[in-house]
Specification:
heterodimer, A: mainly alpha, MetI-like fold, 2 domains, 14 helices, 0% strand, extended, B: 317 residues, two-stranded antiparallel ribbon, flat
Chain lengths: 350, 317
């Protein structure tokens, strides 16, 4: 054991600074906000006495601007951080996507046409499409089926925890867990990966699962489904429980069987939750980075937009092409969000 | 009603026994199916957990399922991966500490800022309030990939428009780079945080707020003494969410913390180990568990809050 605590002291000092900064910023802000109204009250008091003494009426509309001052201080940290950290950078990314690799020259839309010209980037777009199509569909289906199956069953809480647990595991951790499942040993040797062992038991030759496109992308997709099904299950389970029981009882009395009950009552009842789940998972999948990077590092034709964006911008120094990929990611999110907003609005009108 | 009842009773009567059998069969199938799904979902993690306690030569030569025929336990993998000094060992203890240093402020700052903003947007009347709210709400859809390149160049070069320097470069190195990571995580967390907490804060009873105003309480006072205690469950939910997000994040850490053992968190180190030492399963299995165990504990002990927050955020929309 060579772990040396002295080496780690600077980190703990940084943590201390961080916490002190937090207390100073937030505490200072609240303190400031306490002092200002006291000051203002005193000044208004003075003005009031002066006005009464002079016999002039008080000017109205003072209160509103004071409210504005409060709002300013309450909102200042958030607006500043969002401006510096998100709004300005996003606009700059848009601009950078029209420039060349080291941002010295304008190149128009060449970074975008580059994507459709290069076959390897086209492959990446197809891979991403496969991800966004399959993950929301399958993760939501599994989550929904499971939520229906365990609804009001014995040990429901435990059963739900088991599926929900992967939500707490990082994508990197999940990547390693599944890489182990897909591990490969040459034929003849004992397999250490569960999938290959099952495959061998069934009479197959051991496979290098992660090296064979397009199967490898599907196997990575399984990992994402494994993580997201729990999220779908929890949200949909709550929605199922929110369906009024008298509706279900009425259906029972009418002699509706379980299958019909699912299609005619459960499914329409949870439609809004279903839309939210599908949209949330779609967006998360679109931005997926960690799983691909951990499991294959984008080799064997498994790259997706987010990993290629990282490679272009931070490994190859192609800022323009990386930024263009980020913009494409952003553009792909927009229709999904529009769909959600529209279906929610339709829901409210009904 | 009276006319239809007999016919239905007629069709139902013979079906009751068959129907009861079928229903029991149905629930039996349902139970079986749910158990199968539960097993499929649990077994990969279980296999990794079992493997992490097996001796190295056994992990590398036999499947973890043979463990039950020949159980041999060891803690050596964990000792190696946490404290081993050779560069091929994980040295994860150091990265573990980095994860903690990154996570704490990255949870505290967005929590406080979002709570303040949510209160202002819900209960202070000022011009342009709706526009600011819509703006923050809309920022949720901007992928953080859109911000990475310029934000990194801001940290290293500052912001200048047309040759005029608006903000200076930060020029941080070694441990100071934690500040970059905190800053980035806080920025990226705020849109969702403000949205979630606003959902909660805006539903506090209006009477309560007005009564406090009439009593002469100022906004900061109301915020501290009335709002904060009432929104504790929401703060807990969002805090857990943000904690899991930061602890499990790879992309932001990779870019803003770098890969060295001064600042990089567990996820970065693990991804690196998986890439360069993909066959050192004795280290990967135990290392993965070192990274998983903290969020798992937080998650299991606070699951109730987390689920509530998840539902508040997603179902209300």
């Amino acid at each position: 054991m060579n772990f040396d605590f002295a080496d780690e002291a600077p980190k703990l000092a940084m943590l201390l600074y961080g916490v002190v900064a937090f207390v100073a910023v937030v505490g200072g802000l609240l303190l400031l906000l306490d002092v200002i109204p006291a000051q203002l009250a005193r000044r208004r008091q003075a003005r009031l006495t002066a006005a009464v003494a002079a016999g002039t009426p008080l000017e109205p509309g003072r209160r509103r601007s004071r409210e504005g001052l409060f709002a300013l201080f309450f909102l200042l940290p958030t607006v500043l951080m969002l401006g510096i950290g998100l709004v300005i950078p996003a606009i700059r990314t848009l601009v950078l996507s029209l420039k060349n690799g080291d941002s010295t020259e304008w190149v128009g839309l060449r970074n975008y046409s580059w994507m459709v010209d290069r076959p390897e980037i086209v492959d990446i777009l197809w891979n991403t499409a496969l991800w966004v199509l399959l993950v929301p569909l399958l993760a939501t289906s599994v989550g929904l089926i499971y939520a229906v199956l365990v609804d009001r069953a014995r040990l429901e809480a435990l059963a739900k925890s088991l599926i929900f647990l992967p939500m707490a595991i990082s994508f990197v951790g999940a990547g390693i867990i599944w890489k182990f499942v897909y591990a490969f040993r040459p034929a003849g040797a004992d397999q250490i990966g569960l999938l290959n062992q099952i495959w061998v038991w069934l009479g197959g030759e051991p496979q290098q699962w992660l090296a064979n496109p397009p199967l490898n992308t599907l196997l990575l997709i399984v990992v994402m489904i494994w993580i997201q099904a729990g999220f779908a299950m929890v949200v949909l389970s709550a929605a199922i429980k929110a369906i009024p029981t008298d509706m279900i009882e009425a259906a029972r009395i009418d002699g509706v069987n379980a299958w019909q009950q699912f299609w005619r009552i459960t499914l329409p009842g949870i439609r809004p939750a279903l839309v939210v789940v599908v949209v949330t998972i779609s967006i998360a999948t679109l931005k997926l980075f960690d799983i691909v990077r951990t499991m294959t590092n984008g080799n064997f034709n498994t790259n997706v937009i987010a990993t290629e964006m990282y490679n272009q911008a931070f490994r190859y120094g192609q800022t323009g092409q990386g930024s263009a990929l980020a913009v494409v990611l952003f553009i792909l999110v927009i229709p999904i969000v529009i769909y959600q907003v529209r279906s929610l609005r339709r829901q409210r009108e009904v | 009603m009276t006319t239809t009842t007999p016919t239905r009773a007629g069709t139902d009567a013979p079906a009751t026994i068959a129907g009861r059998v079928r229903r029991r069969l149905n629930t039996r199938w349902a139970t079986a199916a749910s158990i199968v799904i539960a097993i499929v979902w649990t077994i990969p993690t279980f296999g990794l957990l079992v493997s992490s306690f097996r001796p190295e030569d056994q992990i590398k030569t036999t499947g973890w399922w043979t463990f039950f025929a020949d159980p041999q336990l060891t803690l050596e993998n964990y000792e190696q991966v946490l404290f081993g000094r050779s560069s091929s060992a994980g040295q994860l203890a150091s990265y573990f500490l980095n994860s903690i240093v990154i996570t704490l402020p990255s949870v505290l700052f967005p929590l406080a800022f979002a709570a303040l903003a949510a209160y202002a947007l819900a209960w202070i009347n000022f011009r342009g309030r709706d526009w600011i709210y819509i703006g923050i709400f809309a920022l949720q859809i901007v992928p953080l990939q859109m911000a990475l390149v310029p934000l990194l160049s801001f940290f290293s070069q500052g912001i200048s428009v047309g040759g005029i320097e608006l903000l200076p470069a930060w020029n941080l190195d070694d441990e100071q780079r934690f500040i970059q990571v905190w800053f980035a995580h806080t920025c990226f967390a705020l849109p969702l945080g403000v949205f979630l907490l606003h959902n909660f804060v805006s539903q506090l009873p209006r009477d309560l707020m007005e009564a406090a105003r009439v009593d002469g309480a100022t906004h900061p006072k109301i915020f501290r003494t009335i709002v904060l205690p009432l929104i504790t469950p929401a703060l807990a939910a969002y805090g857990i969410f943000q904690f899991l997000w930061v602890w499990n994040d790879l992309l932001v850490a990779l870019i803003f913390a770098g890969g060295g053992d001064e600042t990089a968190p567990l996820t970065v180190r693990l991804a690196e180990l998986a890439g360069t030492r993909g066959n050192e399963w004795q280290r990967l299995t135990s290392g993965a568990f070192v990274a998983i165990v903290v969020p798992l504990l937080v998650f299991l002990s606070l699951q109730r809050y987390f689920v509530r927050g998840l539902l508040a955020g997603s179902v209300k929309g």
